[in-house]
Structure formats: structure tokens, C-alpha cells
Records
---
Amino acid sequence: MNEHSNSQENPFPVDLGHAISIVIEHYKGYDDVEVHLFKPQWDKELEEALDWDEILGSPIRDESLADPVRSRKILLETFSSQENETVLNYLKSYYESRLNSLHTRIIGYPIPKDLIPLSYIPESENIGIIRFEDNPNYPLDFPVHGVYDLSKHK
């Protein structure tokens, strides 16, 4: 399994911003399926305490698509440095033989106001959510989900 990490300094005023993606060797009959992991739950008090004017930036595409409340979730779905290590250790312990690669990085700063959080991506025939906490003997004390799109894989 290849492991890639972007070790840049965290620009956020809080210990969040770590993004994790994995590539599963074979999943649902497809090869090399990329899965982007996220936290489906977060601390509401932290969400209220952050200075979102500092964290959120201008939209990438169109001001009319900007939704600052929705865009907050981009950061809130990411992992803290400790959660990042915990998830990586979990993936290596339970899934290493099934993973082609594991990628970690800090997300970009500031966060554009027109991005869509991973938790907002609707499931469909090709797009799905892996709910890791539904696995027997799930060892983490927080849920982790992963979104994938089979239409992008052979």
C-alpha cells in the first residue's frame, strides 16, 4: 500500500483540516475505487465558537452559489491531528491488504463559500457512502464515513 501525506502547516485557528482519502483495490466489482473520508458529526459548540469570516473566503465560481453556513461543514467534516492518526491506524490495521493507497493532506485555506460538503452528496446508483462504524468491532469513538463514485472507475 502506498501512503502519501502532505505535511504542510495547518493554517486553521483550530486543530481541524486533515483530509483523508483511500483507494480500495476492489470494491463492488470495480477496481481502484477512490473514497473520501469525513466525519458526519461534530461539536456544535466548536462550530458556533469559530470566526467563520476568517476561515471562509470568496467563492470559486459564482457568488450566487455561496452558502457560508453550508461551507462551514467543509472544515467541520475534516479530522483533527489526533483523529487523523487514529483513522490512519484503524485503516492500516483493518484494511491494509485491501487498500492500494492512503492519502492525507490539509485542506486549502481559506475555504471558498461555494463548495459542497461531502455529507451533502446524495447517494445514487453510482454514488455511495461507506459507514465504517457499521462494521463489526468498530474500534473508534467517533463515526467515519466515506463517499465514492463508481462512475469514475472501471
---
Amino acid sequence: MPSHKPQFSFFNLFEKVFPFVFCGTFTLIVLMMIVQAFLVLKVAGIAAKSDFSNGIKPVIAQAWCGSTTCLDK
């Protein structure tokens, strides 16, 4: 009895890998949206407490590194 060795098929590989690629891509998109929402809320909170008498640079510095003078180097 001859045994039949299954031949490599790109379609079979695609069928097996596609769910993992799809779920991984979807997970990365969701994580990216969560991080962006966190950053927007953080900057909005800092901007709400700030006065803009010195311009926007101190507000950006406060959001970026926690100090209003860290970008003045």
C-alpha cells in the first residue's frame, strides 16, 4: 500500500494562519486605540488645569515629561 504524503498548499497554510493574524491585528488596533484615548485624556486634563499665558509649549512639556521646563534644554 503506498502512503500518500500530503502536498504543501498555500491555501491550507493560509487557512491555519489567518485567524491568528486577524486576531493579532485586531488586538493591536484595540490596544492602540486605548493608548491614544489615555493620552488624549491625560493631555486634556493637563490643558484644562493650565493657563495658556506662556503659550502651548509649557502644556506640551507638562504632558510629555511632567515638568514645564523639561523642553527648555
---
Amino acid sequence: MKLPTKSLISKIESLSAQMTPEQLRDFLDVLDSMAIMVKEAKSMSPTPESPDLSGFKVALH
């Protein structure tokens, strides 16, 4: 499920307000790591040896 950006930001703000400083730091570390993974994945070009991911995407939904 993809949320609109404003909704996602609102949910993150609400969630982070309930966290301890340590939990918030860990949460933000996870978000940073995920952003890096997405950036790296977008920069990868598919190779002929790569399996077709269309079936995988369908399985995730």
C-alpha cells in the first residue's frame, strides 16, 4: 500500500512522537538504510541472468 506523501509524513510524525530517543534513533537509522537500498536498487541495471521479477512483484501484493 502506497500512502500519499503528506499522509506518510503525518504517520511518521505521530509514531515518532511516541518513541523514546533511542527508539527514534533506531527508527531513523532503518529509514536511512531503506532509502540507501532503494537508491542502490534504482541504479542497478537488469542483466540477462536476472530472473524476471514481475511474478515476484505480483506475489508481494
---
Amino acid sequence: MNPDLEVDIDALRRAAADIAATADRVGAAAGEQPLPPAIPRWATTEAALLAAEAARQQLALIGSDLHETARRVRAASADYELADARAVTRLRLIR
């Protein structure tokens, strides 16, 4: 038999776990920002703080998107597993 689609469910689950771990690291990086020195206050300090905040927000969004991707990969693997189980049941019924 030559299937139209073959899915390695365990590999999907491992990929989802890896994506979630990456999301955690990215989210942690978003929370790690050094405090600027109080003195001397340079003319570029405000601009640097704004740029750092923008970068932090982007990292937080990327981390959130990665978590959503991991969730979707997990859901897809569960759906494939359920489809396989239904196919097995159908095949058993026709024997």
C-alpha cells in the first residue's frame, strides 16, 4: 500500500516540545533587560530605552507566536492519531 500521507506522530510531538522550549527561552529573554546606569544620563538614553522596549515587545510577541505554533503542532498530531485510530476501526469492521 502506498499512502497519500504518512505522519510520524512521535516526531510531531518532539517538534512541538522543541518549539515550546524555544518559546520559553525567547519569553525569558524578553524579561531580561539590563537597567541603564542612573548617572551620567546620556542624551541617547531615552532613545536606547525606547529601542530596548520595542525589542522586548517583539520578543514577547515572537515567544507568544511560538507557543501558539507548538499548540497547533500538538493539536495536529492528536488529530492525525485520532484519524489513524478511526481508520484502524474501519478496517477491523470490514474484515
